[in-house]
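Need ABC transporter permease's 3D structure for a figure. Predict it.
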Amino acid sequence: MNIWKISIKNIKSKPFYTFLSIITLALSITLLLGIQQLKSSFQHQMHNNLSNIDVVVGAKGSPLQLILSSVLHLDNPTGNIPFKEAKKIAKNPMVKSVVPISYGDNYKGFRIVGTNPAFYAIYKAEIAQGQKPKNAMEVVLGSDVANQLNLNLGDTFSSSHGLIENTVEVHDEKLTVVGILKPTTKVIDRLIVCNLETVWDVHDHGPDEHSDEQNKNDREEEHNHNDEIHDHEHDHHEQHAHEAEKEVTALLISFRSPMALLTFPKKINEQSNLQAALPKFELDRLFQYTSIGFETINWIAYLILFISALTIFINLYKMVKERAFDLALLRTYGASTFQIIKIVAYEGIIIAFSAFVLGAFLTKTALYVILKFANFSYKQNMIQPLGLTEITQTAGLVFAMVAFSIILAVYPILKMNISTILSQESR
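Structure prediction for ABC transporter permease:
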């Protein structure tokens, strides 16, 4: 007697109830796996990208916006700050390192970030091909950028103004790819990195032209008056003034001691026109806000799981009651009670396994579709694959509920009176 074949025939004999059981169970699995994947992806991005960044300093505005824009590169910046302020902060004895970043352009939706060599160390990024930028107008590509745009060493392109892909405000300057980074699974994989000078030169046409004209006047003045001391002082003043006009978007700061977290941000916020935001604090607070929604959907998923388990129980119990004569007849032909129970159990297992496969597929498909229609494309896709632990836990919960439904459904089999059932059917 092939028990599997009998179970499959039972499933085929009632397609509507089988379909209903699989769909409701698959829906609950999709919600459970989807929420777990979103939560784990959010936590992964928080801890993976913060590294040793203790404080982010930028223009006044929303602290969370500053963190999202400067650390995760998911939002618009709060504004720019003078570069001279960054130099002052770097001299603070509590500060271990200051990494300035400046951005405002993109290429096909990927952000172009101007910074210094210390930026790579934050994300432990290493060069896979080529080298890091040494001169202005040279860029290094994150691994995702290189793969998605199919760019190679030596390729050139022009950036667009703003953080959204457009073909209206395209700069004339050509940027040259001199390096490609190894994959890090961090935000730098989705960035185009260059020197600060590149960002300044692309946006700072006016001062450059003024500087050229002023240098020409200075040379004429030097030739006419031959006053070397005056020229030296004038050039020094002009260089200082020109440097004072430079701006950056934010500063990524790490401290020498955790004690600095108690005083430094407060001093910046109260005694300057700048803003200091704590990445871990802001992202933890964001997670607390979003976790309410996560928990709500989780409870909805548990409710649907309970309903689906109830549906499976009703389906199996109905089969046991309606086919009591067939099951009793199998007993008379030598089938044991355990074999009869296995027929019902296999039917429940087949439904549960089919629903789990469908639920896992729907989870992956649904997240892709949601991100696509939410205009949250691969350029900012932070979804991480689910770990084996999360999948195992969900599978264990689902199969435990199905097993409980099977136990309840097979109870009439244990109490089955074969002679009574056969005698009633014969009448």
